[in-house]
């Protein structure tokens, strides 16, 4: 019954240096009022700084704890039994194959098989923009879907149809698995395709959490032509230092920036076609 408290205390130890110091020096006294069982108290008492950081790093990698990644969305590993508040929308992902591996310092340490667990600012920015931009868009395209998290979010906001594409075989496989986990295979179609291989357009919303170089290439390849009248594109995966260059590229492609979001050195843009 106290398991959630136990994990919460470990996470608190990473984020609160004073609490961490007390826990490591006097574990019994520090946690005496939290109602832990004897096994959990023993485990906490045995934690050394390095082991503590490793455990917390894994928790931040969504292996144990759900992660609220935006105002409305919380990402949970498939193994999670944690309750979700009624005002939040859950997205379940295969935590072993999706997202970024987290090191002892809590920072990303290389990639897993498919990017997108919500922990990286580029993904959370895209989710924030999606929440604020989505207005019942019936047809959504997710370019470079990775883990499929953005496609799943769009479907859970009410999209009638979502096409998720990626050129990486592993990403397509993992995205399909995550779509199935969330029981959205009737709404989301996952395909191994690049943007120039698409046979359709007229999307109400396009999501693109990619790198700067890929954005520049796709804008030159007329990404904006994919939009239906009044449609919007959310561009993410852009460092703040790259923002000005992307703004110019959007303008050259015939687009206009109507909104922007910033988080921890990363930016995302909402783009429409210029009149």
Can you describe what's shown?
- The chain has 275 residues and is α/β, with parallel strands linked by helices.
- It is 37% helix and 26% strand.
- It has ten helices and twelve strands.
- It has helices spanning 3-15, 17-25, 27-31, 38-46, 49-60, 121-133, 149-156, 169-181, 212-220, 243-252; strands at residues 67-68, 73-77, 89-93, 100-102, 108-111, 139-143, 161-166, 188-192, 203-209, 227-239, 255-263, 266-273.
- The strands form three sheets. The protein has a seven-stranded mixed beta sheet with strand order 8-7-6-9-10-12-11, sandwiched between helices. A three-stranded mixed beta sheet has the order 1-2-3. A two-stranded antiparallel sheet has the order 4-5.
- A hairpin with a 4-residue loop joins strand 1 and strand 2.
- The radius of gyration is 21 Å and the shape is elongated.
- The N and C termini lie far apart (59 Å).
- 38% of the residues are buried.
Q: Which descriptors would you attach to this protein?
A:
26% strand; alpha/beta; 37% helix; single chain; 275 residues; elongated; seven-stranded mixed beta sheet
A few lines on this structure:
Helix content is 37%, strand content 26%. With 275 residues, it is of the alpha/beta class. The chain is elongated.
How many whole angstroms does the radius of gyration measure? 21 Å
Major sheet attributes: 7 strands, mixed
Biggest sheet: strands side by side, in what order? 8-7-6-9-10-12-11
Low-pLDDT runs: 100-108
* Share of residues in strands: 25-35%
Give the ordered list of helices and strands: HHHHHEEEEEHEHEHEEHEHEE
Strand pairing plus helix content: what structural class? alpha/beta
Euclidean distance between termini CA atoms: 59 Å
The number of helices is 10
Q: Outline, from the CA principal axes?
A: elongated
DSSP strand tally: 12
Instruction: Output mean pLDDT.
Output: 82
In which range does the helix fraction lie?
25-40%
């Amino acid at each position: 019954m106290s398991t959630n408290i136990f994990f919460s205390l470990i996470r608190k130890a990473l984020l609160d240096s004073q609490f961490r110091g007390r826990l490591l020096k006097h574990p019994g006294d520090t946690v005496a009022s939290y109602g832990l069982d004897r096994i959990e108290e023993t485990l906490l008492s045995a934690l050394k700084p390095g082991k503590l950081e490793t455990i917390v790093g894994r928790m931040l990698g969504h292996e144990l704890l759900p992660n609220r990644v935006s105002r409305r969305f919380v990402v949970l590993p498939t193994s999670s039994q944690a309750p979700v508040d009624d005002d939040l929308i859950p997205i379940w992902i295969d935590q072993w194959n999706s997202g970024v591996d987290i090191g002892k310092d809590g920072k990303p340490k290389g990639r897993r098989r498919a990017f997108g667990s919500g922990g990286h600012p580029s993904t959370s920015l895209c989710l924030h923009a999606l929440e604020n931009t989505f207005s019942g868009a019936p047809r959504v395209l997710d370019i470079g879907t990775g883990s499929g998290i953005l496609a799943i979010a769009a479907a859970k906001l009410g999209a009638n149809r979502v096409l998720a594409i990626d050129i990486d075989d592993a990403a397509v496989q993992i995205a399909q698995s995550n779509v199935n986990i969330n029981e959205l295979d009737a709404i989301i179609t996952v395909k191994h395709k690049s943007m120039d291989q698409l046979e359709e357009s007229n999307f109400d919303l396009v999501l693109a959490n990619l790198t700067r170089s890929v954005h520049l290439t796709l804008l030159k390849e007329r990404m904006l032509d994919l939009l239906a009248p009044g449609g919007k594109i959310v561009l993410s995966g852009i460092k703040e230092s790259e923002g000005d260059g992307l703004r110019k590229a959007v303008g050259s492609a015939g687009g206009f920036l109507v909104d922007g979001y910033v988080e921890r050195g990363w930016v995302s843009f909402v783009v429409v076609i210029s009149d």
